């Protein structure tokens, strides 16, 4: 009897200390596991990104360090990779494509930024119920449509319309701008909607309480306060437009012309890369020049990202 | 003395829920009237009814009348812009606009059509001085208002309200987010302002009501239980429920 009681007592004591220690140990192990798993994920991402950057950069600068072409030649306007030596060739000037990419991106932004910001204001301030019920799903669908479908619609609808109304072949800067505008519109709208909705209700109330009308409140205060977010949407849209290859390639015409006219066929960096990457031999100057163009794409896209960082950093105004 | 605001049989419903029941109240000009009562008693709802800020909440409907200078603001043809210009409001949380201090104060005059810089400068300086904020901000008028402290922000909001030249200023627990020193400065300001304006202040803080107000109104469950001179109400409450509330037995 006494022994049993003693044993029970001691086991009780043990189990209390065990109870206090065990979950602690278990918890520590789980904590450590979580930390390791997320750390591995982060490192996989970082290593992938940096090897990608390294790969593109080393390939991109190889035609210059191997003295295949000079920077001046690369940034010239003359493109003729198959021109024979008697003609003075081959020429690897990519300037027309850089300008083509910039022109089509700027054009698409000029069209879709006001449209997208206007739609975002409508959806949040003018008709929030209607906007949420109908426009939100429409925008989500627009984001989900693959770019080849946009390109196909551009090819079968937009290009013929341009050909008949404006003349020319229909392929060119204008067709590219229209297709890209539609593609980047949902990005600008949805980021814009988030930005406008993030403006606190108290600020609107303060404005109404001073006797401001809804439109005064929206135009003078809400939009002004949401400008960093709205600009972020626009720059994200620009980055998407700048990097889009497939849809652009289907409507741009793919001739190495300067983007001097809206209805003449031109080329962009992306369209040249996708069209020629498969047809050129690894290690040749032609192939390496395509990598240099990819590097230019990467650098300009990074510039867009830094731009977003810069805009969103100055949140207070 | 004629009443600045007279409220007659005013009912307000949030959908089916009656938040204010047959409110009758007269508010005297150039006085501070305090609304006290436990949470959910309707004091803020009545305050927000006096410049029709409740209109924006879906499902709200009202009956009865609230007359300001003899004119019923719930009339069909009431111009909300003019009403809110004359009846300014200061909210519980300081809500400066995320623009510069100068633009905050100039916002109201600008939307009401004042454009000349000279005039705006004059208004900004005068109202910031009235709000006891000028000396603290005169060197950084063009910096963001978000950089001010909570107490400074609340005084900025008051200057912003003064800039549209209201007659009545409604304050919805204006000091509840402020520290004691900022609260004291705000209370001084309220007492200063009453010589030019009619002020209605909602507060949870009974000492505050006692310090700043001339008249106190005690609310309970959407009804007015007692209205009296502040000193009278706090020292000799007539209703038992008022006495229980001010002595801290509920609320």
TrEMBL record, chain B:
Entry function: Part of the ABC transporter complex PstSACB involved in phosphate import. Responsible for energy coupling to the transport system.
GO molecular function: ATP binding; ATP hydrolysis activity; phosphate transmembrane transporter activity
Domain ABC transporter: 5-246
Subcellular location: Cell inner membrane
Protein name: Phosphate ABC transporter ATP-binding protein
Gene3D superfamilies per the UniProt record, alphabetical: P-loop containing nucleotide triphosphate hydrolases
Record carries keyword Nucleotide-binding: yes
Membrane topology note: Peripheral membrane protein
Main location: membrane
GO biological process, one term: phosphate ion transmembrane transport
PANTHER family with a match to the protein in the record: ABC TRANSPORTER I FAMILY MEMBER 17 (PTHR43423:SF1)
PROSITE patterns: ABC_TRANSPORTER_1, ABC_TRANSPORTER_2
Keywords: ATP-binding, Cell membrane, Membrane, Nucleotide-binding, Phosphate transport, Translocase, Transport
Keyword ATP-binding belongs to the record: yes
Any single Pfam family the record assigns to this protein: ABC_tran
Domain of life according to the entry: Bacteria
Entry GO terms, CC: plasma membrane
